[in-house]
Specification:
elongated; homodimer; six-stranded antiparallel beta barrel; Lyase, Ornithine Decarboxylase, Chain A, domain 1; TIM Barrel; alpha/beta; 17 strands
Amino acid sequence: MRIDDLDTPCLVIDEALALANIAAMARACADAGVALRPHAKTHKSLLFSQAQMDAGAVGLTCAKVSEAERVAPAGSSVFVAYQVLGEGKRRRLAALRERNDVITGVDSAHAIAEAALVGTRANPLPVRIEVDTGTHRTGVSPAEVPSLAVQIGRCPTLRLDGLYSFEGHVYNSSSAAERERIARDAVALLVEASRAITSDWEALARSVGATPAVPYYLRAAGATELRPGAYVFMDANQVSLGAYWEQCAATVLATVVSTPTESRAVVDAGTKTLAADGVPRGKVARVLGHNLWVTRASEEHGIIECKGDHGLSVGQRVRLVPWHVCPVVNLADRFALLAPDSGVRWCPVDGRGCSA
Amino acid sequence: MRIDDLDTPCLVIDEALALANIAAMARACADAGVALRPHAKTHKSLLFSQAQMDAGAVGLTCAKVSEAERVAPAGSSVFVAYQVLGEGKRRRLAALRERNDVITGVDSAHAIAEAALVGTRANPLPVRIEVDTGTHRTGVSPAEVPSLAVQIGRCPTLRLDGLYSFEGHVYNSSSAAERERIARDAVALLVEASRAITSDWEALARSVGATPAVPYYLRAAGATELRPGAYVFMDANQVSLGAYWEQCAATVLATVVSTPTESRAVVDAGTKTLAADGVPRGKVARVLGHNLWVTRASEEHGIIECKGDHGLSVGQRVRLVPWHVCPVVNLADRFALLAPDSGVRWCPVDGRGCSA
């Protein structure tokens, strides 16, 4: 099967580019002596989580238990970087522990109490305390860490594995200097909070996230582990934060269905294919090889608007680099894996829709 | 199975509310003597397309051929309100015609030429010309309609069935008066464009879309057919445009996973469950029974922020009315159909992800 045989819209992953991104991140972490635990939320694919493990990752990160069930290679270490609550999820987490080494996140007495029901005295559940380093989502302030550590210490079915944070606010940064500051501050906070718990603080994991902050995490010694996700495929958002178009491995193949005016063309990929998650005004997706963007989109229409002449014609196929790749992959049941010779083969998005 | 047994996040559809919405729309159209051809893009479910047909719809509307393949009841009339291009789709459309009466949309000479390859002399393909009534997406200006009609007339494998439009710009309206003007203008444009084609213009379909414009389409005599989609479930966006919270049949059941501050709580449903499509600032989803909104979301976190005290606790379950329901349903492989006694049963989202 060739790329020309694909019906549109269709998610296409360039295998060589994705593997190069995986290798480059593994090398950067190895050189810095920091563990890499990639977040599977971007690819949601066993194929790529295995490739990340083969390249030297210490394990995987997953957002949810159901995601871990589908995309963690058997035997691998999996950090479910989330509060696991409710009887149904606790049961699934216990089952997951039969084939994977599992770590989970906690940020409240309630979450600690529920996690304690999953671990056993013979096999305590390792937990990490989530620290809010500025994203203001979940996580506790550094000042609250010691009290949670004490609570964990009182549970014989739990083991305190370390601290973690996610620097989502780096996506709102406007300069490399600001990204550097965010990364340095986060690492410093985790180090400080670790020291406040125990004199043996160096043994605790200090795990940080977010692809655009990676170069700065690595320079700010003190993090023991990185959890980037988007780096595997990159996207227009990552390019806006320092990556390169040449690294973008995920594109949506689309067909021009209408050219109502010289300055407006419409493709058959809208928000049900390209997603609308976090997209800034006018930048739903970049049209590869053309100086054009999908500037707005409805569910099944991507609208390319420009100042001059778009130069596209009805029936023409284009490849689009989405703004934010993670939700795009999650919309697709499968992707076409593109080889250097333009041959393609279908691969499932194993963890698609796994948000439970 | 009861609603309390569901793991979260989970899409829950209140069956009685959805059926009431279906009945009300069918009644309004019947009273006005206008045909109803609901858009299946919202529910993507054979269960609900069958319910719409049972309530008196003349047929269905689908955005794409793959959607029609999955959600159109056998034997029903289906309008694929899209330009069907490419050999693969033409083949699928021809196959679909073996079990359904199919109509498609065209807005260019290229689309007409491709459609002509699907119809046969013995069984011409009915086509409708898409007219841009102000959304500025696909569709031709009313002035271009006659020339397309002539082109269609020259193809013995096609039959001109009528005109259609979609008033997407009604979603940007700020008053009922503006919605009325948009609806009246659209209907008037289709009537005028029909008259420009043929003296037998009354025999042509004049089909308009968009749920919030429905009351005004019905008053502005001249449309022969309505294609609303979102009315089946309603959502916070529809409420902002005149619908009622009591009509909202689709909710996402979620669990509070963290309460970092008195004014911030976090649920386990983010943009991978609630979607981010068209969401205005601060209104990702409304928390049912609380005076609260999910004000921002990342992929797996919905963040509820308020001025005072949210009053929620970790582990508590809430039901969320999404801003825009169509992409929310498309994210779910299945939904829990809720009966009045709080019993639930699983139903597939048959057309999930069908954008080809």
